[in-house]
Structures are given as C-alpha cells and as structure tokens.
Amino acid sequence: MPDAKLHIGVAGLGRAFELMLPTFLAHPKVALVAAADPRSDARARFAAEFSARTYASIEELCADSTVNAIYVATPHQFHAGNVCVAAAHGKHVLVEKPMALCLEDCRAMIEATERAGVCMVVGHSHSFDTPVRRTRDIIARGESGALRMISALNYTDFLYRPRRPEELRTESGGGVVFNQAPHHVDMVRLLGGGMVRSVRAVTGAWDSARAADGAYSCLLEFEGGAFASLTYSGYAHFDSDELVEWIAESGYAKDPAVYGSARAALRDVPSQQDELSLKNSRLYGTKTNASSGPRPESESTRWHQHFGLLIASCERADLRPTPRGVFIYGDTEKRFEPLAPPDVPRAEVIDELWDAVFLDRPPLHGGAWGMATMEVCLAILKSSREKREIAMHHQVGV
C-alpha cells in the first residue's frame, strides 16, 4: 500500500506543532485533516490553510472518522490523558517527548494502545536524526570495534525563551530534564544498545527568577560496560552550535554575531503575565505569527538536525555525527562519511509511524522505548536529589 497516507489530526497547535509543520507539509505520506486547540484564532487559521475541520477538544477530534492518527503536541501534563483518549477511539498516536511525567502514566499509555490494538510512536527526539542513525550503523558493523564511551554536550538558551509558568517549575514538568534530556538520553541509548544499567547525576538551578533545573550532568552505565556522559546547560551563555559549524539545532545556518538575544528579549518583559503574552504571540494562529510560509532562514540549505556535540568512542575509532555527515577518527586515518541534505525534515519520524501502521513493523520509538527513556530522565532528577546512583529496571534494547 505505497499510496496509503496517515490522515493526521493535530492535538495542540503550539510550538511543537510549528516545528513539525514543515515535515507534515513536505512528507508525501501525510495529510493534515483536522486539529483541536482551545484557541479560536489557531483553529481558524488551521481551517483556512488546510481546508480542514477543527475542534475545541481532543475528544471531538478523536471522534472524527476521517482521522486515523493523532499527533499529540499538547503541554506535557496532558500527554498521558490525550493518548488514552486517542487509543480509546481507535486512533494511532504520535506523541511528543517527553512521553509523560511519571512511569505510571507511561504504563497507562502503553496499556491503552495495546488494548486498542493501535500503534504509538514517541517523538520527535534527536535519536531519529540521520547522522545519529548512521553512527549507530557504523557501530553495528563492528569495523571500529566495540563501543566503549559516549561524550555528549549541549549549551543553549533554553531557559531564557518565553515560557508558561509551569515550564519554569521542574515539579510541573518544566526545566531541561523533562524538555531536553529525552533528546540526549534517546541518542545515547540508541548508540549504546538501549540497556542502561545505572544513572548518577547532578542538576543545576542557578537563577531564582527561573527556578526550574537549567543544567544537568550525568553518567550512564550500560549493560556490557560502555558508559556515557551527558552535559546540558540552558543558561544562554556559551552556544555549543559553535562546535558544529554554526549550524543550529534545526539544521539551518546560524549567525554567530547574534549573541544574547534570548536574555535581551526577556529584559523588556516586566512581569510573568507579559512573558506569557510574549510566548502566546509567537504561537501558531496569532497575528504576529500569521503565516506558515517559508521563513527567511529557509532560503539557505537545511542540513540534518542535531543536539550539540556527540562523540562515540569505540575500540578502534571515535565517531562524531554532525549535521553534514559522520567523522571517523581511526587508528591511522581520519575520514568523513557525508550525508546529503534531507529532502523532508524529520522524515524519519513519519516513516517510523507509517511503517508501524501500514506494514505492521514494530516501531523502535514505541511505548516501551519511550518509558525506558523517561526512566533515565526521572533517575537524573532522583540521583541529583538523593546524591546516589540509581539502578534501572525498565530498559529495553535496540
């Protein structure tokens, strides 16, 4: 059934949807047919742009018989309930990361989709990125020897982008561990085989005005002896895109002369309500964000997405995925395996869901994988709080 399409209903027309929109527009196996959002302006714009039906609630969206898959892009705290509603209506699900905010909710989502006989994919995380997958293929071929160590770091302005109040409270699912660690953990679990044995971590919350965790550093030990160190800072100082040729996480070129713009924008926001208004002004459907047409950056080449610097150390080579390809630093030579720019950004996410729905191919990023990643993320918080190593019990292999 090569011509079959995912008829997607979007739950939540916020920032996550805007990031996935270029994929939905360009992928030949997707049709956007419906959406649900509490904002009437977002619904009106979606209906006009896609000649699609819109609803105020996910229950109404899931009752739409023309929809065969729901993209859950609502705030984190609603993921579990939204997935269960979609499954109860017989809809396949693509749910944004983080899968949920606790393991109990992850289990409920898995049970609901299994009971309904529908597929669930947890994404987008950067473990979908082609350079990371190519690195995994090189490791699997065995030509570089066994994987021994992974070093991954990312420094961004995450904490200083306009936020809703709950996004600045770790206990409500805010901060970098819930928002950014799923990318890091998914990538190193993919490269390391999936089976994390234990986690030891520390987190940092260094700005009382933005009290959520803004940094973490952790050590993951895998079954078999390999280990990974992950470091993330969202405090808007050093920008690790400098280490990947000034290509932004999105895959577009970044201007290195623009420094401090995130913090500067917040200096002109006097109150929490003003910050919320600023965030809302940038959402899909608002007057200041009125077009889904090409943005200025789209005039340049879009390379593969990335999540900072990553080096996988094998017995006979270090491997470094980049937006343009993979560097291989061997015993006697350094070489580069180039990758062509993607025709469709994040196509791998849709491909995995399509294969699961129409070819009955079990997805890598299914419920069990998503729950295993969240177990590690929650262990980062627990390890930092309790100052001890945390053993894992719900891991799954690649």
Cα gyration radius (Å): 20 Å
H/E series, N to C? EHEHEHEHEHEHEHHEEEHHEEEEHHE
Total helical segments: 12
Span between termini: 27 Å
Structural class: alpha/beta
Query: What composes the largest sheet?
Result: 9 strands, mixed
Strand content: 15-25%
Q: Strand tally, please?
A: 15
Shape: globular
Fraction in helix: 25-40%
Order of neighbouring strands in the sheet with most strands:
14-13-12-11-7-10-9-8-15
Low-confidence stretches: 290-298
Mean pLDDT: 94
Structure description:
The protein has helices spanning 15-26, 40-50, 58-62, 79-88, 103-116, 130-141, 175-179, 181-192, 261-267, 272-281, 347-358, 367-386, and strands at 6-11, 30-36, 53-55, 69-72, 92-95, 120-122, 147-155, 196-204, 215-222, 227-233, 309-314, 317-322, 325-330, 334-338, 390-391. The strands form two sheets. A nine-stranded mixed sheet has the order 14-13-12-11-7-10-9-8-15. It is α/β, with parallel strands linked by helices and 398 residues long. The model is unreliable at 290-298 (pLDDT under 50). The radius of gyration is 20 Å and the shape is globular. It contains twelve helices and 15 strands.
Please summarize what this structure is:
By secondary structure, the protein is of the alpha/beta class. The chain contains twelve helices and 15 strands.
Which structural traits does this protein have?
33% helix; single chain; alpha/beta; globular; 15 strands; 6-stranded parallel sheet; 398 residues; 9-stranded mixed sheet
Itemize the secondary structure elements and their pairings:
Layout: E1 6-11, H1 15-26, E2 30-36, H2 40-50, E3 53-55, H3 58-62, E4 69-72, H4 79-88, E5 92-95, H5 103-116, E6 120-122, H6 130-141, E7 147-155, H7 175-179, H8 181-192, E8 196-204, E9 215-222, E10 227-233, H9 261-267, H10 272-281, E11 309-314, E12 317-322, E13 325-330, E14 334-338, H11 347-358, H12 367-386, E15 390-391
Parallel strand pairs: 1-2, 1-4, 2-3, 4-5, 5-6, 7-10
Antiparallel strand pairs: 7-11, 8-9, 8-15, 9-10, 11-12, 12-13, 13-14
Helix pairs in contact: 4-5, 5-12, 6-8, 8-12
